[in-house]
Design goal:
With 928 residues, this protein is mainly alpha-helical. Helix 6 (147-157) links the parallel strand 4 and strand 5 (165-172).
Length: 928
């Protein structure tokens, strides 16, 4: 027995809740003991948590034991090792208990009718050992040792309420002990998985490598440790292929191999078949089993052990990591034999690709015929881009001609990228470079490499790669070259190097032909329109961009792709046809989801969010950006993820939600491209927060620094979007040349569009910069209110009403101001924007009107938007009617209404209406 001392606690990533539970158990031991059972998969960190308990048990004596499978047939073997340090205290026990305990621990049997006496003896011995100082007794893997020890410890653990003794047990996830609190260890999330890897590698791995390894590790701490131990420098730097599974000879692999060794040969054979048959169709597995001379029922022992779950719809692995470990634990000959069995059980027509993949896995040498079969079966991507990519990668391995191998690797890389696997795509491109020296092949590969850099890496370098590659393929494939130029244009804009867009425009113009099909003409129009917009030539930009929008709406057949639709949507945003841009982006989102093209889905969602911002649907825009963020993170697109974070920061700042806005900005962190679009969006968000707090100079400086007008450097397009806020901030300052210059740029753009909203914002900006109290300011404000569209943009109209009301009040016209301030307050309340509603309320009070927020219980429990939705429901409005009145989607209304029911404790619309009627009655009674 040892006394625990204070030491530096080891960090256990992702186990904060478990560590807190252990500390609570130990901190309360002097007032009465307790027990805890930690259940988890092998490698989930059960032993590490026992170590944490030992280190934290300051002031406690510690007894520690481990259940050993080798001693499972020896009754009380585990108990003997646990209690050995305190057996000298047994003299304090009653004679009957002492003698029975000694006989049991030296290997003599304990009669069934004496089990209670023996258990009481163990409890008494622990009580004696805890007289001087509290005691912690731990048993790791209690379910692996002898059952008699487990039974006694369970008995003891249920009787510690009045003793200064804590018992901490660990067991497999399938084990249960009645009467003892149990806690199951869950897999680590992505962030904690990366932290485990980072702790054990000589350098922090690149973000894509860390993300891939986190997926391979399946959230299992030991799997992550095993992976980190076998990685080569080239692997953790992202220069070599990463392991597809934890090493079979690692600690976790050995633990599972020991469990497999305890199963019969038939069960192990069936487990291997099930692990290799990833589609899990019961018929396939049953046919393969019959050929192997066994049945699916042979999996029963594995199901009891928790390795698999056998259901009518097929065999599943509760822990996906187990599938990979079972496969890697088998010999090469066993795996090939199993693949041949599965191939024989599949139909050559309906299951063509799966059958070919199993045959390929069982083949060692080059096989041109099988390679061609794999390619033909995978080419349409109907089985999923990731599966098709793996098939083409294997087809390249089986090819006997370098040209064919290169073509298959190129397509495999494109499919991997489409399926959201940028790291795999990069590795395939590296293999392609080693296979082929053909300039055209390498140029096509560089187009994809440049796109990967644009979405996932350093966008500054992406533009050079894309431009060079587009030129190289221009003679052989103009459509591909134009696609590359579109991406190059995105890269220069993302990085804030808009002055370089002119070069993109020149190359696109040289490639354009009068006979181009619609998709190619669309891309040419977009590039020409963007180039003209960036140099301020809106007379040329408008027709080209509008033509791109029209072409996007006419796309059909093979020309209808997410890429083409996003091009058309981007054109629509630049020419300010927000409704059309939203429809095109929505189609792009739907098509990308339908086809599983994760590489384009995040970009399509980004454009949809911007369209929703301009349409005044801020809640919908935030929902879209959150969706885009999830997609971007899942597919390794760090730049796209940061754009969505920036947009979420802006939308939160506009609602004066400081906490959310700053949290999103912190998540952006040090983006790969300094000064890129995410940083500009973050600057815009911070400026809005400054404006809300009345720091006008700081807000103006932030927004003015987003771009250097006249140079083509900086985030010109973001600054144009933010110009109304820049002007509002600068209106409170004496010196405002930056705002005046930015407004001139905004005016030229707004004037070239047919957007009433853009023109309304322009008029409002001019009103703010006009002399205070003059006729010019009032004229511009009234023009802005006439121009604001009634069907969209309620937030911006409310902002104009508020600013106009402020102008009238400060010009000593309080009566005129009140009408506009009331309008602003009502609209902000409808939209649930409490901060701006409060500003309107403050202005109304300053204008001589006594107003205040409702003082009902629901008003204190709900947000402004939730309160308004609840009020409309109480009035009898449907969700669709509420959505139309508040400029929200019905899905958003549904979401808020569920929260309203929860916060108010009601279960139906009828109960909600009754609650509001009761509140009003109480309110009227108190006033009376």
């Amino acid at each position: 027995m040892v006394a625990a001392s204070r030491v530096q606690l080891t960090v256990l990533h992702g186990r904060d809740d478990e560590c807190r539970t252990i500390r609570n158990l130990l901190d309360g031991v002097t007032e009465g003991g307790g027990a805890l059972l930690l259940r988890g998969e092998p490698g989930s960190g059960r032993t590490a948590l026992l170590g944490y308990a030992h280190r934290h048990a300051e002031g406690c004596s510690v007894l520690a034991g481990t259940g050993l499978a080798e001693e499972a047939v020896l009754p009380y073997a585990g108990l003997q090792r646990l209690l050995d340090p305190v057996l000298d205290r047994a003299a304090a026990l009653p004679d009957e208990q002492r003698q029975l305990l000694r006989r049991a621990l030296v290997g003599e049997t304990c009669p069934a009718d004496r089990h209670l006496t023996l258990s009481m003896a163990v409890l008494g011995l622990l009580a004696v050992a805890a007289r001087d100082r509290p005691l912690l007794a731990t048993m790791d893997d209690v379910d692996r040792g002898d059952p008699r020890t487990a039974q006694v410890l369970a008995f003891v653990a249920r009787r510690l309420r009045h003793l200064p003794v804590a018992v901490l047990l660990t067991a497999d996830v399938t084990a249960t002990v009645d009467g003892i609190p149990a806690h199951r260890l869950r897999p680590l999330d992505a962030r904690d998985s990366v932290a485990v890897l980072t702790d054990r590698l000589p350098e922090r791995p690149t973000a894509p490598v860390a993300a891939t390894l986190a997926v391979v590790g399946g959230g299992n701490p030991q799997a992550l440790v095993d992976l980190a131990e076998v990685l080569s420098p080239g692997q953790w730097r992202g220069e070599e292929p990463l392991p597809a599974a934890p090493p079979a000879d690692g600690a976790l692999g050995r633990a599972y191999r020991a469990r497999l060794d305890r199963l019969s040969p038939d069960t192990r054979a069936m487990l291997l078949l099930a692990a290799l048959d990833e589609d899990g169709e019961p018929g396939t597995l049953a046919r393969a089993a019959r050929v192997a001379g066994t049945e699916v029922e042979a999996l029963a022992p594995a199901e009891v052990a928790g390795l698999v779950r056998v259901e009518p719809q097929g065999v599943t692995f509760p822990q996906p990591l187990v599938r990979a470990l079972i496969a890697s634990s088998a010999t090469l000959a066993e795996r090939r034999a199993a693949h041949r069995l599965l191939a024989g059980a599949l139909d050559a027509n309906g299951q063509r690709l799966r059958r070919a993949m199993h045959l390929a896995a069982a083949t060692a040498d080059a096989d041109p015929a099988l390679a061609a079969e794999l390619e033909q079966a995978a080419v349409d991507g109907s089985d999923g881009w990731v599966v098709a990519s793996a098939a083409l990668r294997r087809a390249a391995d089986l090819s006997d001609q370098p040209i064919q191998a290169a073509a298959r690797l190129q397509t495999a890389a494109e499919y991997a990228w489409a399926g959201g696997q940028p790291d795999q795509a990069r590795l395939l491109l590296d293999r392609l470079r080693a296979v082929s020296t053909d300039p055209t092949v390498r140029a096509r590969a560089d187009l994809l490499r440049g796109e990967l850099e644009l979405r996932c890496g350093i966008a500054e370098g992406a533009s050079v790669t894309l431009l060079t590659a587009a030129r190289a393929v221009a003679d052989s494939d103009r459509a591909l070259a134009l696609t590359g130029l579109v991406r190059a244009g995105e890269a220069v804009c993302f990085a804030g190097d808009q002055y370089r867009y002119a070069e993109v425009g020149r190359w696109a113009s040289a490639l354009r032909r009068a006979s181009d099909p619609p998709a190619m003409e669309l891309m040419s129009c977009l590039i020409a329109g963007v180039a003209s917009t960036l140099r301020g030539d809106h007379e040329r930009a408008g027709p080209a961009l509008r033509r791109a929008v029209v072409l996007g709406g006419r796309l059909t057949g093979s020309a209808l792709t997410p890429t083409a639709l996003t091009c058309a949507a981007a054109a629509g945003l630049l020419v300010a046809v927000d409704g059309a841009a939203h429809r095109l982006a929505e189609r792009a989102v739907g098509l990308a989801r339908e086809r599983g093209e994760l590489s384009m889905l995040s970009r399509a969602l980004e454009l949809r969010a911007v369209a929703e911002y301009w349409l005044g649907r801020h809640e919908a825009a935030a929902e879209t950006s959150r969706d885009g963020l999830r997609v971007a993170r899942a597919s390794g697109q760090v730049n796209c993820a940061n754009v969505h974070l920036g947009m979420l920061a802006v939308l939160a700042a506009i609602r004066a939600d400081r906490h959310t806005s700053l949290r999103r900005i912190r998540e952006i962190g040090e983006a790969p491209t300094p000064g890129g679009r995410p940083h500009a969006l973050a600057g815009w968000a911070l400026a809005v927060l400054d404006l809300v707090d009345g720091r006008h100079a700081e807000a103006a400086d932030r927004l003015a620094s987003l771009a250097r007008l006249g140079t083509g450097r900086g985030q010109v397009l973001v600054q144009v979007m933010a110009t109304p806020y820049l002007v509002e901030a600068a209106a409170q300052l004496a010196h405002r040349p930056a705002a005046t210059a930015a407004l001139a740029v905004f005016d030229r753009w707004a004037g070239s569009t047919v957007s009433p909203l853009r023109r309304a914002l322009s008029a409002r900006c001019h009103a703010l910069l006009a002399p205070r109290g003059g006729a010019e300011a009032e004229r511009e404000f009234r023009m802005a209110l006439r121009l604001h569209p009634t069907e969209a943009g309620a937030f911006e109209r409310a902002r104009t009403e508020l600013l106009f009301g402020q102008e009238l009040r400060r010009s000593r016209r309080p009566r005129d101001a009140r009408a506009h301030l009331h309008q602003a307050r009502e609209m902000f309340t409808l939209l649930g924007v409490a901060c701006w509603a409060e500003q309107a309320t403050t202005e109304l009070r300053a204008a001589g009107e006594s107003v205040g927020p409702p003082d009902l219980p629901s008003a204190r429990l709900l947000t402004g938007q939730q309160l308004r939705i609840a009020e409309l429901v109480a009035e009898g409005a449907t969700n669709r009617e509420i959505a139309a009145r508040m400029f929200l989607s019905t899905r958003t209304v549904d979401h808020h209404l569920r929260n309203v029911f929860h916060r108010l404790g009601v279960r139906s619309r009828t109960e909600l209406a009754r609650a509001f009627a009761a509140e009003r009655h109480v309110g009227l009674a108190s006033e009376w």
